[in-house]
Amino acid sequence: MKVSVIGTGYVGLVSGVCLAEKGHQIVCVDIDRDKIEKINHGIPVIYEEGLEKLLKRNLNGNFIASTDLRQAVLESDLTLIAVGTPFDGQEIDLSFIREAARQLGEILRDKPGYHAVVVKSTVVPGTTDEVVGRALEEASGKKAGEEFGLGMSPEFLREGMAIQDFMLPDRIVMGGIDDQTLEMQDELYSVFPQADKVRTSNKTAEMIKYTANALLATMISFSNEIGNLCAALGGIDVVEVMQGVHLDKRLSPILPSGDRIRPLFTTYLEAGCGFGGSCFPKDVKALIAHGRKIGRPMTLLDSVIHINEQQPRQVLNLLQKHFPSLKEVPVAILGLAFKPGTDDMRESPAIPIIQGLLAQKSQIRAYDPVARREAQKLFKGAAIDYCDSLEETLDGARAVVLLTRWEEFGRLPEMLTGRAEAPLFIDGRRMLDKRSIARYEGIGM
Ligand code: UGA
Fold it and tell me: What is the pLDDT of residues 334-369, one digit of tens each?
């Protein structure tokens, strides 16, 4: 199938390259010439494991990047819209998607025959039909659902696992206002015969995406609230509590062999310094704002965000329990990215924690296997010593704070034993065994 994709960000580029790998003919379009040039030279512009290899394999074959939207649309049967939908502090910013729809509509005006438009960007319920559909109709002079198709198919990729998630989807959600759009998506996704497919309306497809992320974010804040209570009560460790909870057979089913399935879902039922990234905070806030706009405040989700915004504070409180003044105290920060496997620092809990330490004039040494450059951009000019290795970061530290579950931090117990003066260790992710480190403190205990 011939497909054009608008946007070469995370969702656009990964979808484009993976669909090309699966045999479709893909043109990814972006207004940024520099980006397009790089992509066409095999440089993927975002870091995602396996992406470069797939891109290089499909260039000059099924995949090409271009700045020419007109040609891409005229020569394809279906267009995926995968532009950014940031949260502007008040509500979801739809300006990019509106503009994409307007330009697309102008091209559809001149295109004979049927063309399907499918939104892949995360948008609040109603956007595809009311905003995208209307903009397309106005610019094309044609009727949605009759002269062109309109669908919505959200993406469920995790950063760091995007290729794997796209190639082995757990579900494919397809919304559409007419049968032909749904049939064309059937053909597009026929390359994933094993995936469960949901055929629904555009509005429901949009809601599925938000609900999925809101649920996971709620699980995290729930675990953090329980963890904070455990810490306040004293003598209870949230890790043990959650281990007991995870053994509920509805969370970890028991097979006839007696073995347990441990679903990934339970990894969202763990206490820590909070969630970050480009999706959970933005999506939950956008949904809350949308609810408020239509007169439906969402008090549970309000609390999910409130708890998450307070959570980095727990780490600072633990530090201050031992150092009432943090002035000039050498603190080693381990992990800057919002989660392992990425250099992304958007909404990372490390940001407010470092800001708190800077305000108190601590001596900050920081280490992250890949996010150093991002941190340097973000904290331009700030008094932070970036280190090249774990060993170097620990040198002279009186407090060590773990904020991201990088695998190499598993070496810490061994590295910290036998030191003349054991530093205070704060496990912001409850990653390590508390018995393996001398002066261990963690969230939720
Ligand atoms: C998330 C969803 O997991 C994807 O299904 C979804 O497609 C994606 O958002 C999106 O909307 O595009 P992602 O943001 O890549 O994916 O990250 P996750 O791996 O889900 O982690 C999110 C945050 O939750 C991280 O900061 C992580 O450290 C934190 N987390 C996770 C916790 O604080 N506690 C946990 O128990 C688990």
Answer: 999 999 988 899 999 999 999 999 999 999 999 999
pLDDT in tens, 388-421: 999 999 999 999 999 999 999 999 999 998 888 8
User: Of all atoms in ligand 1, which is nearest to the CA of residue 10?
Assistant: 12
Amino acid in the structure at residue 220? I
| CA–CA distance, 390 with 411 (Å, rounded to integer) | 9
Confirm whether 279 is a catalytic residue.
yes
Q: Which atom of ligand 1 is nearest to the CA of 272?
A: 33
Ligand 1 center from residue 302 Cα (angstroms): 18
Burial 38-73 (b: 16+ CB within 10 A, else e): ebbeeebbbebebbeebbeebbeebbbbbeebeebb
Cβ atoms of residues 158 and 133 within 8 Å: no
Atom of ligand 1 nearest to the CA of 122: 11
> Which residues have C-beta atoms less than 6 Å from ligand 1?
156-159, 213, 216, 220, 267-268, 270, 272, 274-277, 279-280, 338-339
pTM of the model: 0.96
pLDDT of residue 48: 87
CA 133 – ligand 1 centroid, Å: 30
Write out pLDDT tens, residues 56-97.
999 989 999 999 999 999 999 999 999 999 998 889 999 999
Q: Which of the listed residues 157, 305, 404 should we mutate to test ligand 1's pocket, taking the one with most ligand atoms within 8 A of CB? A: 157
Q: Which of 28, 230, 273, 279 is catalytic?
A: 279
Give the phi and the psi of residue 91 in degrees, each rounded to 5: -160, 175
